[in-house]
Write a structure and sequence with these properties.
260 residues; Rossmann fold; 10 strands; 36% helix
């Protein structure tokens, strides 16, 4: 990992829903940086603001105030074609519930982002061969979603999110609809994409096991940054990191702002 280069800056981000007595502050001035090649986890209770944060980065939501800067560009200055290019080329989004189109094969689902952006067939074929081998789905490319297991669907969805070689992969509870065996398969593949491909990943999760694959975790409580937990650079094992994550999640009801 390049420990020097920042790829994403989130600065003073707020998001408010509703007005007057119906006003809800989902995000309350969150700021953090993401390094190129980092595998960053975001954890917090339901309603803490973690998915709102992810959707702001994806431009699916517009924040009330603050800035999000990707590769030196303020993403909320994008309009029209530039915004479409950002959504299609700079970010990949992996949803919890797959969001595959039922009437398309795995191949067609994966290639959809490239088709929408006019990528040449030869280049698209090369890209899908590489990503399907990496995610171990080459044998199901002609199947429809109804013919796939949940784990296969999520790996197809991951291939679709990665096919455009985005600057950053956003994953919202990617193991939430999977059993433990398929969760591990997916997380092992994402870790491989992160380490071998140097892909920056930002993953929202409530699962300490999934979070233990990350190199750093931000804990959010009530729309604010609560804790930051880093994997030891001396080679801390996933099991040891998992235990530290459990310790922090147990403290989330207490109140602190430490870096552990």
């Amino acid at each position: 990992m390049n420990m020097e280069k920042e790829i994403l800056q989130v600065e003073g981000l707020t998001k408010t829903y509703g007005r007057n007595e119906n006003r809800t502050e989902a995000l309350k001035g969150i700021s953090f940086r993401v390094l190129e090649g980092e595998f960053l986890g975001i954890m917090g209770a339901s309603g803490s603001g973690k998915t709102t944060l992810l959707n702001c980065i994806a431009t699916m939501l517009k924040p009330t105030s603050g800035r999000i800067v990707l590769r030196g560009q303020d993403i909320f200055g994008f309009r029209g074609g530039k915004l479409a290019d950002y959504r299609g080329r700079e970010i990949g989004y992996l949803f919890q519930e797959f969001e595959l189109l039922d009437n398309l094969t795995a191949r067609e689902n994966i290639l959809l982002p490239l088709s929408l952006h006019g990528v040449a067939k030869r280049q698209a074929d090369q890209s899908i061969q590489a990503i399907s081998r990496l995610l171990d789905i080459a044998g199901i490319l002609e199947k429809f979603p109804s013919q796939m297991s949940g784990g296969q669907k999520q790996r197809v969805a991951a291939a679709r999110a990665l096919i455009s070689d985005p600057a950053i992969l956003l994953a919202d509870e990617p193991t939430g609809a999977l059993d433990s065996k398929n969760s591990k398969i997916l997380l092992d593949k994402l870790a491989e994409v992160n380490h071998a491909g140097k892909k920056t990943i930002l993953m929202v999760t409530h699962d300490a096991g999934a979070a233990s694959y990350c190199s750093r975790i931000l804990f959010i409580r009530d729309g604010q940054l609560f804790h930051e937990l880093r994997r030891s650079l001396s080679g801390e094992s996933t099991a040891d990191f998992y235990e530290r994550i459990l310790t922090v999640t147990a403290q989330l009801g207490g109140g602190s702002a430490n870096v552990l």
